[in-house]
Amino acid sequence: MHKKNKLYYFIGMSNRYFYTIVLLLSLSLCSFLRAEDSISLSKSDYLQILDRLARLENKIDSVQKTDAQTGATKVVDAQTGATKVIDAQTGATIVKTTPDKQTTEKKDEPEKGKTTPKWIHNRLTIGGYGEAVMTRNFFSDHFNRYKDPAAYKNGRSNGQFDLPHVVINIGYDFGHGWSMGTEIEFEHGGTESAVEIDADEAGEYEAEVEKGGEVALEQFWINKKFFRELQIKMGEIVVPVGMTNSHHLPTEFFTAYRNEGEMRLFPCTWHQLGVELWGKNEYIGYQLQFLAGLDAERFSAPYFVHYGATSPYEFKLANGYAFAGRVDGYIPKTGLRLSVSGYVGNTIANTQYSGVYNSKYDKVKGTLLIGSFDFEWKKFGVIMRGNIDYAHLGNADEIWNLFQYLSKHKYQDGSPRKGTPVNSKALCGGVQLGYDIFHYIPKLHERQMQLIPFCVYEYYNPVYGKGINSVNYEYMDRHRVACGVNFYPIKEVVIKAEYSKRFLKGIYNNEPSFSLSVAYSGWFKF
Asked: Minimal CA–CA distance to 427: which of 388, 467, 481?
């Protein structure tokens, strides 16, 4: 404790004891004299004594008090109610409050180089988001429904419950511009496995997978902030290509599940190890990333490059590299955001195998190009979003022919290869429109309650154009319409109801469904 404050504390405590002793002696003397009738006191004498005792109590209440945890000295004026806190190390007045002004004002800053009290900083951030969905599909879910559409035209409906994403986020600000962030995601409830003793197998232990799912470390990065417009991030980072990867929280889209088109064609949420240069202000934001390229061995006709960012190994292959970028433009006072994003990288070099190359494939790169535009407009209670994405994969036919030399995924041999061709082109796009009915109801709007009827249109096709195998996957050429309502009782929680229908091409059966979901997205500082 500061020497000056030690002196204040000693004097204050001495005064407290002194005034207490005087008070007790005075009361004892008055009682004795009154009992002996040796002196008579008038009413005015008693009033004077009580007045002096009240003054003594005020002085006792005004002495300094020292906080046991921080070492700061607290001074309270009993007459005015004013309070001030004196820093134990610097002797400076940190905080001063008055009854008339409840807000806190800083009077004197601590000396430079001195440690600021811990209770001033909010460095730890904990938050996350999650979704729970119930869906009823009014079409057959048989795995042969696309091979023989007529046989399953009047198929039985089916239902399911799902936890698409449950995420825990932890961040910490180290100070001096350094911070870190982590995100652990449990997809579809995570994985559940168990071991039991099976009586039918002579008491042998038997391992079982009780529930499918995925647990992934989706983000782990260290960030250095030089100033708002210039920062660098290193580690497992989100690749901001497309609307969904950049805005994937459940409070940032209307439907029960994320955008179907982008979610099917590209990794989602797309995250990889890399380095990012980024910055943002009220007018513009930018992100430039250096990453490992995707793995062509995981591409497929139904999902294009969706699985290309995953790795079945304990590391991510990086024989080929890629670049990704995004620019967001914000137009002040209009509520409009316009964004463009893109990706370029070689893919075939990031496949781990040996003995299959020959001179025909030495120069095959499998370059992947992705271009995307998306926007959002929020004004007058109207919420509108839209996107369009186009992708081109070079050497798609050569990639498929090359992988004919390799074993396919069968008999649970552990091969991650999908065993289907990949097309050279993919396309998706859509628009979302909603209106907040509570926007012009002041009491509800102030409480951040929202009731948003919405409609969504999407188109997506992972076999767009005319590739050598695109004819076999015409059922992937899809239009989708969804209508429903979102209700926000508070800003962080949303309840969704939705009816949607996929319209498939030609002889294939359409796929209607109904979904209910509840979701949250919240971030808390300590």
From this structure: 388
Using one digit for the tens of pLDDT, what is the confidence trace for 7-32? 444 444 555 555 566 556 665 555 55
Does 88 score more than 90 pLDDT? Answer: no
d(CA 514, CA 53): 77
> Which residues, in sequence order, are bridge partners of residue 487?
451, 495
Going from the C-alpha of 453 to that of each of 327, 485, 487, 498, the distances in angstroms are 30, 4, 9, 10
What is residue 8's predicted lDDT score, i.e. its pLDDT?
A: 45
DSSP annotation of 349 reads G
Reported confidence tier of residue 488, pLDDT bands at 50, 70, 90: very high
Q: CA 310, 312, 316: angle at the middle one, nearest 5?
A: 60
Bond from prior residue into 73 cis (ω within 30 degrees of 0): no
Residue 156 has pLDDT above 60, yes or no: yes
53-67, 195-209, 244-258 — which one is most confidently predicted on average?
244-258
| 6 strand-pairing partners | none
Quick one: pLDDT at residue 188?
80
Helices (H), 381-468: 396-402, 442-446
- CA 234, 237, 241, 244 dihedral sign is negative
Phi and psi at residue 109, in whole multiples of 5°?
-80, 150
- Single-letter code of the amino acid located at 405: Y
Q: What is residue 201's three-state secondary structure?
A: helix
User: What stretches of 229-289 show up as alpha helix (H) in DSSP?
Assistant: 243-246, 260-265
Q: Phi and psi for 231 in degrees, rounded to 5?
A: -140, 155
3-state SS, residue 475:
helix
User: 251 — alpha (psi -120 to 50), left (phi > 0) or beta?
Assistant: alpha
Taken in order 59, 61, 67, 73, is the CA torsion positive or negative? negative
Q: Is the pTM of this model over 0.70?
A: yes
> What is the distance in angstroms between the CA of the first residue and the CA of the last residue of the chain?
27
Q: Which residues contact 385 (CB under 8 A, 6 or more apart)?
A: 243, 253, 374, 375, 376, 377, 431, 432
Output the CA torsion sign for 304, 310, 313, 316. Answer: positive
416 is written with which tokens? 């991650």
**Cβ(322)–Cβ(345) below 8 Å:** yes
CA 394 centroid distance within chain: 34
Neighbouring residues of 454: CB distance < 8 A, sequence distance ≥ 6: 254, 383, 432, 433, 434, 435, 483, 484, 485, 486
pLDDT on residue 59: 60
Burial class (CB in 10 A: 0-12, 13-18, 19+), 420: middle
- Pairing state between β 493-504 and 382-393: unpaired
Tell me which H or E stretch contains 288.
strand 284-292
Is 518 within 8 Å of 494 (Cβ atoms)?
yes
Q: Which amino acid is at 153?
A: K
Tokens 């008339």 belong to which residue? 100
